[in-house]
Hints:
The protein is an alpha+beta fold. It has 3 helices and 8 strands; from the N terminus they run H-E-E-E-E-H-E-E-H-E-E.
Amino acid sequence: MMKDAEQTIGNLVDKQSVSFLSSVDGDGCPNTKAMLPPRKREGIKTFFFSTNTSSMRVAQYRKNPLACIYFCDKRFFRGVMLKGTMEVLEDAASKEMIWREGDTTYYAKGVTDPDYCVLKFTAHAGRYYTDFHSEDFIVE
Length: 140
């Protein structure tokens, strides 16, 4: 296991302006989408994203929770892929936890907008790439 994995990967994640989230469609094919960075993270195990309840991605996660998230630091050509599961959260506490000023741009009815939900990703494993080398690791 790489030295200080949680700190190294956490720093990489925190500096990115784009996240890549993958889901599995009804045919079993991966689907990847660029999104804003996570609103909150707990170490490198749990990540929270905001999205539209009506989105195709939410429908896919409800049918199949297998997911992958990827963060890429193009300046230094390094990245991390985390594999795990995605939950769709619609409870008030989760929605309020990551709500930010200005979110009414995306969710006109505010924090209670039925088209606003939270994606909670829980990682179980990952792969980190840097300096022409990749390393698999387990997330605990």
